[in-house]
Amino acid sequence: MIVYVLDTETTGLRGGPTDLVVDIGVSKVDFDRRKVEPVYSSIVGYTEDEMRGKENSWIFQNTDLTVDDVLGAPPFEEVRTAVLDAVRGKKLTTYNTSFDLDKFL
After folding, report:
1. How many structural domains is the chain composed of?
2. What percent of the chain is modeled with pLDDT above 70?
C-alpha cells in the first residue's frame, strides 16, 4: 500500500488568512517496500506586506527558515497548485488533517 503524507509549517495556529503556510512537503510512503521518498518540497513565498507582523513567528525563531527565504520563494498559489497536482487521486494523510487541509489548503 502507498500513502502520501503532507506536512506544512506555518506562521501560527489560527489558519488563513491570519496565518500563512511558509513551507510544505509531501512524501510517498510505500508500506510494502518499507520505503519513504520525497515527492515535493517548497518554501512558500509572500510579499513584504503579507509578511509584516509575522517576523517573530515561532517558525522563524526556532528553525533555520527566515523571512528572506519566504520573500524569495514561489508564491502560495503556485505551490498550492503543484501540491494538489502531486497528490490528486492518491491516498493522502497529514500529521494534522484539520489543521493542514481545512485551515490552510
Report:
1. 1
2. 90
Q: Is 22 exposed, middle or buried (0-12, 13-18, 19+ CB in 10 A)?
A: buried
CATH number, domain at 72? 3.30.420.10
How many CB atoms neighbour CB 20 within 10 A? 22
pTM above 0.90, yes or no: no
State the distance between the two ends of the chain, measured CA to CA, in whole angstroms.
25
CA atoms of 20 and 3, how far apart (whole Å): 26
CA angle 85, 89, 93 (to 5 degrees): 90
Quote the CA–CA distance of 15 and 100 in Å, as a whole number. 9
Domain that holds residue 31: 2-104
Angle at 82 between CA 78 and CA 85, to 5 degrees: 140
